[in-house]
Amino acid sequence: MKNNGKTGIIIAGLIIGAIASLLVYFGNPANMGFCIACFIRDTAGGLGLHQAPPVQYIRPEIIGIILGSFAIALVKGEFSPKGGSAPLTRFAIGFCIMIGCLMFLGCPFRMIIRLGGGDLNALLGLAGFALGILAGVAFLNMGYSLKRTYKLAPTEGGILPAAAVVLLVLLIAAPAFIHFTEPEGGPGAKHAAIAISLVAGAIVGCLAQRTRLCMAGGLRDVVLFQDFRLISGFIAIFAACLVTNLILGAVTGGTYFHAPCRLCGTGDRSHGRSVEPARHVCSRTGSNPSGRMPAASAGYGRRRQHGQCSDSSGTAGRRCILP
Amino acid sequence: MNCVITFFNHFGAVRYKRQAERSGWKVQLSPVPRSLSSSCGTCVFCDSGTDDPLKFTTDEMEQIAVEEETGYRTVWRAEES
Known about the structure:
The complex is a heterodimer of chains A (323) and B (81). Chain A is an all-alpha fold and 323 residues long. Chain A is 54% helix and 1% strand. Chain A has one domain. Chain A has a two-stranded antiparallel sheet. Chain B has a 5-stranded antiparallel beta sheet, covered by helices on one side. Helix content of chain B is 16%, strand content 41%. With 81 residues, chain B is α+β, with helices and mostly antiparallel strands. Chain B has one domain. The chains are: A mainly alpha (323), B alpha+beta (81). At the A-B interface, strand 2 and helix 9 of A face helix 1 and strand 2 of B.
């Protein structure tokens, strides 16, 4: 019986964890160095698919993941597009997963990054996530199946990488119809340089493709097979995040362990420097839950600037509902 | 025959294991080895003795591979997979 070694996935986890923390150093939001769900949300906002000004930015990390994993699959001869397995069911499940992730502060990857940043809210998320996996395993064992996949034409598999290239062009060219969160306007305004984010995403994409790093699969394997290979990658991510945060904190003098906003779960720190609570803009409400709203903060300011909000009160904690 | 069988879905592996166990084969569910697939699915390691592992062919079977010193060699693969 063959058993794949854990060394590769542990090394990959250590690299990915360090990258996630370093992205915070280079400008990404604290405890959100790398969050797939949040970055897809930001990208959707950047394309104007939603109108929440604090979270609008085409994240190069997502582009990097797609292109990195695509490139390594091509190089290794593993590019083999498949599909045709219950597409509508998968769409509906993906829809619900995304809502769950954004409601409860991030994807499984960010859950681990949060833990590495000392945010113990993620422990509850981890407990809920594990319960969800157990429910899924029960369904699997009772016979639930999305049926088989079928081989697709290479052009089908090339569409997403092509779309990623288009997104990169839009991000760099920044035409008028692409949205960007205003400076200090929320998490979308916090980002590392495009090249750094792109390379980081490509590295993560390559490593994920080679190691099959998967949090849900890791917990499933522990439950079903008592196999700890996949989950060891996420334990390595946690360890690397924790150590990198400690090192960055010691070197830069800032803090990489934050207390999240009670409304949106994000903090408002950049490059490890603490920012006054009054300057935090909630990504959910665009307001400041501390009770003080800085005049220049983007929640109201940006809306006024764009002539979309006639509420000039700037009342702290209130959400503008005017058109 | 000692082999590893991969499936398009988890339940296919569970069902194959149950059928094989009834025939007295030695079988074990396991994560799919990385060298066999980039998908993190479920496979069955199987010792079918003198029987053909294709005895319990189902639509859910993706491939059968045998372990060699240099890795795995696929000896059967489902159409359109």
